[in-house]
Write a structure and sequence with these properties.
The protein contains 19 helices and 27 strands. The chain is an alpha/beta fold. The strands form five sheets. The protein has an eight-stranded antiparallel β-sheet with strand order 3-2-4-1-10-9-11-15. A seven-stranded antiparallel β-sheet has the order 5-6-7-8-12-13-14. Strands 19-18-20-21-22 form a five-stranded parallel β-sheet, with helices on both faces. A hairpin with a 2-residue loop joins strand 7 and strand 8. Helix 9 packs parallel to helix 13. The N and C termini lie close together (about 10 Å). The structure holds fructose -6-phosphate. Fructose -6-phosphate binds next to helix 9 and helix 16.
């Protein structure tokens, strides 16, 4: 979590650091801070809460200087207060940190015994003191960092400034991402290429364990064993414009409406429309030999994985194990030799998923990742990279990344089915034609925006909302509930429709809206029976179905939302739209912060 940026520049840096933080605010927004080197001093300005507070603070306490570091925080250790805000500093050293120093307590105890005092409750401040001790003992910045890094356990990206070395910064990464950007007579550090987009497109991605000494015209990189190494400089595709809201009120709204375009863009890489075939990237393993897939992810990406489980099993008869990454890693899962482990992630940096990926790698699994950031750590550690082309997703609640993940997973399910002899050419062509209908169907679903906005007034007063679905639409019920709770703060739960009668139906009364996802198809009748059980107990139903479904079961509902009639393979993509819109408009009615909901951050780089 958290975003960090550093500039060794030729001009004043405060404004540019602030702009970089703005681009990374999706990584955390509990507090923010800047430190520059000026006239032999470390000049700090920090503020609790959103970046706008820091901007205000800087107007009265400016931080002049051409070299500086900055941070936007998602709190882990210590409340989101000003004194816990980064940069953390001693007289000699200031630093910003993304990640967690797991052994900070013992390090802090040692430092306290040696007479050091702390101003914050954070794990990060101990690193500033450890480096400071080395500097005070006469070591150079490089030797001080070299001495301290081996003492740290956990995940971190650091950018460190030294009072007595005003023309340099040192960066370091282990577990959390850090990039080096090359400008014209300036060099930058940042959590991601997006943060540096207006400054430079020339980016080097540091490898695990690397650390780097940055001056105005050089970046000297060392690996984890302190050997000098070169890292390739590539041109980042990150565009500054990609993170503008345009005419939309919120990023989330913009991203919901981008879905037809980005799903089409993503499908373009996975199907050949003329040949009507699925086309996956080159693999250097035999996919038809895979006998079991283990899917691991978190949050919304996990729900995409749950949908894929239905597809892989149904279309390809391929057994799937699936788990949330935070549980998977520590339950000692039994992995078949030669198995395929599939990780799904928008950011490609989620610490739980990354830890699970590395565990599977150690266990000899082939690693496939469905990831939206092609330069992310997961992308770089995969044997098979299956990129989604959703473009930067800034709204904290994932929307377009989810439907793009589903598009890739649907193509992968079809590919498995072909390779396992479960789909002949004709059936494959039919599946491809359905996949290619997805963008138009997403457009049709978006046409119900105004109607869903009106409906949001019925949902906004509720204290609890339930979502029901069956089969591949059950994960959509989970996703609908997650979207609603994370941005509107209304308590919501998703249930497999048939599971209601085993307990949750006790929650039903007239105050609980129940959103039912029921496309026409083999599971429709059964879902509707469960819906009637809810209605019989006074539950207020919002039914999302196609015209046939609504004609059959729409009467007496609190509200209905009509979706186009679609093949079951693309139903989860299309039905994602109304649940996203319902959550979005409900949050707008409630006046919550849609793009930056409380307590959350976009990229969760701590376990
Ligand atoms: C919910 C949401 C989160 C993420 C989860 C995994 O809207 O965005 O639940 O899906 O934190 O993140 P990634 O996909 O980046 O691994």
């Amino acid at each position: 979590m958290c975003g960090i940026i550093g500039i060794v520049g030729r001009e004043e840096v405060a404004e540019r650091l602030l702009d970089g933080l703005k681009r990374m605010e999706y990584r955390g927004y509990d507090s923010a801070g800047i430190c520059t080197l000026h006239d032999g001093d470390l000049v700090r300005c920090r503020a609790e809460g959103k970046l706008s507070n820091l901007t205000r603070e800087l107007a009265t306490s400016p931080t002049p200087g051409e070299v500086g570091i900055a941070h936007t925080r998602w709190a882990t250790h210590g409340a989101p207060t000003e004194c816990n805000a980064h940069p953390h500093a001693t007289d000699e050293v200031a630093l910003v940190h993304n990640g967690i120093i797991e052994n900070f307590r013992s390090l802090r105890d040692g430092l306290t015994k040696r007479g050091r005092t702390f101003e914050s409750e954070t794990d990060s401040e101990v690193v500033a003191h450890l480096i400071s001790e080395q500097v005070e003992a006469g070591k150079s910045p490089e030797d001080a960092v070299k001495a301290v890094l081996p003492q740290l356990r956990g995940a971190f990206a650091l950018a460190i400034a030294f009072r007595d070395h005003p023309d340099m910064l040192i960066g370091s990464r282990r577990g959390s991402p850090l990039v080096v950007g090359f400008g014209d007579g300036e060099i930058y550090l940042g959590s991601d290429a997006l943060a540096l987009a207006p400054l430079t497109q020339k980016i080097a991605y540091l490898d695990e364990g690397d650390w780097v000494v940055v001056t105005r015209d050089s970046a000297t990189i060392y690996d984890k064993d302190n050997n000098r190494v070169e890292r390739e400089i590539s041109t980042s595709g990150a565009s500054a414009a990609a993170i503008e809201k345009g005419n939309y009120r919120h990023f989330m709204q913009k991203e919901i409406f981008e879905q037809p375009t980005v799903v089409a863009q993503t499908l373009n890489s996975y199907v050949r429309p003329l040949e009507q075939q699925v086309a996956l990237p080159q693999m250097d393993f035999d996919i038809s030999a895979i006998s079991r897939v283990t899917i691991v992810a978190c949050g919304t990406s996990y729900y995409a994985g749950l949908v894929a489980k239905y597809w892989f099993e149904q279309f390809a008869r391929l057994p799937v194990d699936i788990d949330v990454a935070s549980e998977f890693r520590y339950r000692e899962p039994v992995l078949e030799p030669g198995g395929l482990a599939l990780f799904i992630s928008q950011s490609g940096e989620t610490a739980d998923t990354l830890a699970a990926l590395r565990h599977c790698k150690e266990e000899g699994q082939t690693i496939a990742v469905v990831v939206n950031v092609p330069t992310s750590t997961m992308a770089r550690e995969a044997d098979l990279l299956l990129p989604t082309h959703a473009g930067p997703e800034i709204g904290v609640a994932s929307t377009k990344a989810f439907t793009c993940q589903l598009a890739v997973l649907a193509a992968l399910a079809a590919h498995f089915a072909v390779k396992r002899g479960r789909l002949d050419r004709e059936q494959e062509a039919e599946i491809v034609s359905h996949l290619l209908e997805a963008p138009a169907c997403l457009n049709a679903a978006l046409n119900h925006d105004a109607e869903i906005a009106a409906m949001a007034h019925l949902i906004a007063p509720a204290r609890d909302v339930l979502y029901l679905g069956r089969g591949a639409d059950y994960p959509l019920a989970l996703e609908g509930a997650l979207k609603l709770k994370e941005i509107s703060y209304i308590h919501a739960e998703g249930y497999a429709a048939g599971e209601m009668k085993h307990g949750p139906i006790a929650l039903i009364d007239e105050a609980v809206p129940v959103v039912v996802l029921a496309p026409s198809g083999p599971l429709f009748e059964k879902t509707v029976s469960n819906m009637q059980e809810v209605r019989a107990r006074g539950g207020k139903i919002v039914l999302i179905s196609d015209r046939e479904g609504l004609e059959e079961a729409g009467e007496g509902c609190l509200a209905t939302i009509e979706m186009p009639r679609v093949h079951p393979l693309i139903a989860p993509l299309v039905y994602a739209v109304p649940v996203q819109l319902l959550a979005y408009h409900t949050a707008c009615v409630k006046g919550t912060d849609v793009d930056q909901p409380r307590n959350l951050a976009k990229s969760v780089t701590v376990e």
